[in-house]
């Protein structure tokens, strides 16, 4: 039987009907925002990728100091600050556009590229997956600029602001628009560990640059290095003396054009080094990269020398002609392609093998005394673990989640096994002390200034805390400025007036004591001559007191104070990062709070106080006085120019006709104001208010330990209470 289809085709019953051929999908052009987000996901794979790009930019900018602050593993905040050459204000509009760079202008430039960045994609990618804020200042500028970016473009025009030399880039809410990526990066500790490892590697190779890396809100840095000429010292600082003592220097080179042209130097571990994981730090033409083939080749050499459970420590820096390296083969520039790579690897492998064979004549083994604990301890512990709770069925715990010892049980502590060995007690105490010192030096290499006087000052701060004010400070809410000195804050149902000057002065003082000998530096754009500044301060003192106008006496006092400060310059530099050179110029100041720069108008008074108010003979009183002087200098005093928001506007009126009466002067318009001076004042007061809200109060919540005196000296004044207000309203 046949069936006729509507289109006239006859199909026999029982025969299969061919399926209709599906049309191919249409190719469409993706929206530019989608393209940019996909590209950003390749370049910025996780927070450590963003940190690497920003640190490389800082190194390209010629920085000598780089500071990294991270919050929640980099998802909430990544802040990288440097003291490099900064960014031109006219370049800020295109700074975060894709493929905008100062590193090259033609494709041929890649053949001789020396900078670490070259694509112009990193900052742009960050703006597509996070919120980016840039603060920068170049040499010679009176002020810096701050601007925020989103999706590659500025959110607003660059705003003038106070800034420390160089650039600071903040990346907030990373991957806020990539839900799946953000969920896979919830382990903040894992990402922070990767960031610390990255900064450690950069710090070893770039030993002429000081690095610091810490978590947001934590005063101590997990990586803190100072400028040094020795890479071995940098390794000792970061990885500890136990690693550095088992390293040996290695070099290799080849200048045969038919094989390879390179120079290699570095450090490799000897046969005494033991570790369960290979640590390989490889820089090729100063670029941090990975080379799996080279790593494998070296591990093969070590496998015949070291025990099977041990892995080597390797730091290598390889220099090749730029035209022999292709740097543009990986989205994150993690890998490079080398000309004659097999020959280069073979040469390095032979050099490592030769070095190991020559050093393997002696081996060092660490020994320890085994202490026998009383059998009753083990028995009692075993019994308590075996007896189950009545009426409950014990649940089997997975091995990877099993707790072997209970921290609340004294038998689970090492001290329980030291009681029967009084003869070796002193030896164990000294070993423990040495371990503590080693750990402390590894975290803070300059903590040779572990002075009793500093500990006493820290103890005085801790013992003088007012618990009620501490509770207010830790959980208060900033409301706003009430006037030039007082700010309003709320705690629970109470409203308080807080003296900003007193609070900032105490906070800066405490921070100086805590960060003693561990400061980053503010480099002054021009050296400040001490004699001239001291004479200015003396003139101001005489004006205030109505003293004699004796220029010769002032000059003599200024010279004496200059000589005194020059004599104390070494101590001021080492402990407080105050650099005074032999010509009598102030060149460097410490960073006490991140994002805060002191008002440079107060430098003369600061120097005069430093010379006159410090007892240089008594160590504790000396450190305390210097910290107090720094605290007063860095405190958030009102600017020198009157506040134009109130009656201070009278100060900025310029009366062209001196015969004009005072009544007429009040009627003069904007044309009669000194606009340049007015703009400077408005910027200064706005910057102070911003600093109080965004720098002072957050830092106060984290670090300030308010002394008892603040409860009675008018620093904190309660002005309203919700409960009492309700009572008043009820009466009404």
Automatic annotation (TrEMBL):
Gene Ontology MF: a single term: ATP hydrolysis activity
Q: Where in the cell is it found?
A: Nucleus
Query: InterPro entries from the xrefs?
Result: DNA_mismatch_repair_CS, DNA_mismatch_S5_2-like, HATPase_C_sf, Mlh1_C, MutL/Mlh/PMS, MutL/Mlh/Pms-like, Ribosomal_Su5_D2-typ_SF, Ribsml_uS5_D2-typ_fold_subgr
Per the record, GO CC terms? MutLalpha complex
What protein family does this chain belong to? Belongs to the DNA mismatch repair MutL/HexB family.
Residues in DNA mismatch repair protein S5 domain copies? 235-357
User: What is the name of the protein in this document?
Assistant: VHS and GAT domain containing protein
Q: Give a GO biological-process term.
A: mismatch repair
Query: NCBIfam families, alphabetically?
Result: mutl
Is the Ubl conjugation keyword given for this protein? no
Q: Which UniProt keywords apply?
A: DNA damage, DNA repair, Nucleus
- The keyword DNA repair is assigned to this record: yes
Q: Which organism is it from?
A: Musa troglodytarum
């Amino acid at each position: 039987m046949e069936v006729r289809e509507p289109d006239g085709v006859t199909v026999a019953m029982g025969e299969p009907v061919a399926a209709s051929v599906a049309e191919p999908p249409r190719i469409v052009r993706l929206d530019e925002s989608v393209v940019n987000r996909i590209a950003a996901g390749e370049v910025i794979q996780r927070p450590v990728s963003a940190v690497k790009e920003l640190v490389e930019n800082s190194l390209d900018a010629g920085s000598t100091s780089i500071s990294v602050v991270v919050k929640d593993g980099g998802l909430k905040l990544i802040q990288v600050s440097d003291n490099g050459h900064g960014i031109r204000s006219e370049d800020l509009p295109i700074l975060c556009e894709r493929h905008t760079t100062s590193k090259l202008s033609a494709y041929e430039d890649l053949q001789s590229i020396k900078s670490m960045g070259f694509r112009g994609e990193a900052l742009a990618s960050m703006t597509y997956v996070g919120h980016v804020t840039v603060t920068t200042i170049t040499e010679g500028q009176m002020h810096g600029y701050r601007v925020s970016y989103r999706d590659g473009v500025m959110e607003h025009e660059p705003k003038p602001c106070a800034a420390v030399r160089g650039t600071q880039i903040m990346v907030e809410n990373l991957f806020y628009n990539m839900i799946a990526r953000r969920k896979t990066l919830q382990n903040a500790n894992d990402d922070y560990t990767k960031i610390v490892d990255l900064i450690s590697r950069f710090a070893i190779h770039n030993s002429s640059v000081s690095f610091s890396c810490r978590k947001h809100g934590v005063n101590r840095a997990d990586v803190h290095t100072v400028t040094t000429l020795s890479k071995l010292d940098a390794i000792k600082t970061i990885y500890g003396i136990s690693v550095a003592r088992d390293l040996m220097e290695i070099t290799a080179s080849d200048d045969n054009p038919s094989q390879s042209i390179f120079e290699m130097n570095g450090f490799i571990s000897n046969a005494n080094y033991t570790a369960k994981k290979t640590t390989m730090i490889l820089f090729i033409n100063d670029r941090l990269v990975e080379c799996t083939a080279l790593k494998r080749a070296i591990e093969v050499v070590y496998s015949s020398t070291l025990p099977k459970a041990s892995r080597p420590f390797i730091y290598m820096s390889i220099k090749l002609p730029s035209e022999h390296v292709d740097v543009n083969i990986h989205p994150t520039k993690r890998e490079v392609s080398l000309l004659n790579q097999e020959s280069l690897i073979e040469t390095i492998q032979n050099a490592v093998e030769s070095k190991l064979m020559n050093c393997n004549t002696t081996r060092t083994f660490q020994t320890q005394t085994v202490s026998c604990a009383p059998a009753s301890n083990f028995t009692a512990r075993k019994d308590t673990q075996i007896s189950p709770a009545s009426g409950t069925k014990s649940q089997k715990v997975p091995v990877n989640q099993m707790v072997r010892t209970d921290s609340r049980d004294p038998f689970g502590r090492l001290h329980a096994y030291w009681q029967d060995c009084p003869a070796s007690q002193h030896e164990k105490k000294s070993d423990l002390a040495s371990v503590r010192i080693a750990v402390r030096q590894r975290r803070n290499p300059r903590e040779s200034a572990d002075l009793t006087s500093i500990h006493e000052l820290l103890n005085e701060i801790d013992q003088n805390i007012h618990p009620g004010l501490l509770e207010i400070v830790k959980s208060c809410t900033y409301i706003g400025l009430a006037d030039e000195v007082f700010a309003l804050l709320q705690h629970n149902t109470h409203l308080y007036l807080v003296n900003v000057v007193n609070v900032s002065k105490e906070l800066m003082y405490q921070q100086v004591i805590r960060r003693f000998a561990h400061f980053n530096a503010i480099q002054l754009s021009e050296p400040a001559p001490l004699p001239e500044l001291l004479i200015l301060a003396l003139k101001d003192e005489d004006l205030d007191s109505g003293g004699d106008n004796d220029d010769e006496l002032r000059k003599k006092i200024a010279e004496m104070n200059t000589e005194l400060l020059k004599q104390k310059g070494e101590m001021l530099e080492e402990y407080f990062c105050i650099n005074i050179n032999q010509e009598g110029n102030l060149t460097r100041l410490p960073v006490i709070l991140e994002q805060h720069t002191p008002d440079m108008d107060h430098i003369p008074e600061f120097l005069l106080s430093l010379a006159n108010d410090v007892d240089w003979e008594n160590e504790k009183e000396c450190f305390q006085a210097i910290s107090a002087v720094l605290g007063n200098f860095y405190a958030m005093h009102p600017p020198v120019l009157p506040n134009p928001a109130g009656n201070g506007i009278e100060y900025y009126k310029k009366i062209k006709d001196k015969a004009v009466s005072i009544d007429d002067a009040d009627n003069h318009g904007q044309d009669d104001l000194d606009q340049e001076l007015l703009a400077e004042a408005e910027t200064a007061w706005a910057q102070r208010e911003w600093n109080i809200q965004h720098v002072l109060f957050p830092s106060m919540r984290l670090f300030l330990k308010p002394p008892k005196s603040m409860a009675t000296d008018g620093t904190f004044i309660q002005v309203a209470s919700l409960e009492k207000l309700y009572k008043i309203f009820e009466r009404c």
